[in-house]
Write a structure and sequence with these properties.
Blueprint: H1 2-8, H2 14-24, H3 29-42, H4 46-57, H5 63-70, H6 77-88, H7 91-103, H8 113-120, H9 125-134
Length: 139
């Protein structure tokens, strides 16, 4: 697949790589997840890393949240911001985020006031249960 070759090529033009990564978002996690995670964890360009997070966020695979959280300690602020957005984008990922806070991988202070409010007011009853348990956010 041409898009995969361009996306993984650190010597390729950055905008071409971003476009290739955007195309990989139309595959699935089984096909492109590993490569996108490699790009996220190893690529020197934060712009390319952001594209990888955005592509991963489009996948429906339950592994995405765990894999995004796994690298949390090593992410620079810009990537952490993108990862939080990806995690807040789906109910099951919000729960994974709350579990990561409970486990100490992330701290409640890693979330902005707006992100905390989003979780506090989340429609999903399971998210509300988890947030009460781990964030102790009042109704």
């Amino acid at each position: 697949m041409q898009a995969a070759r361009v996306a993984a090529d650190e010597k390729a033009d950055e905008s071409a790589r971003r476009e290739a990564i955007q195309l990989l978002a139309f595959t699935n996690y089984a096909v492109s997840g590993g490569m996108l995670l490699d790009i996220l964890h190893k690529d020197p360009s934060q712009t390319v890393q952001v594209a990888a997070v955005t592509a991963l966020a489009k996948f429906n695979d339950p592994q995405v949240a765990a894999e995004l959280i796994k690298g949390w300690a090593d992410y620079p602020d810009r990537i952490r911001s993108e990862v939080k957005a990806a995690l807040l984008g789906r109910s099951e990922r919000v729960i994974a985020l709350l579990n990561a806070i409970a486990a100490g991988t992330l701290k409640p202070t890693d979330l902005t006031t707006a992100q905390m409010k989003f979780i506090r007011n989340h429609r999903d009853p399971e998210v509300r249960t988890w947030r009460r348990r781990f964030l102790r956010i009042s109704r």
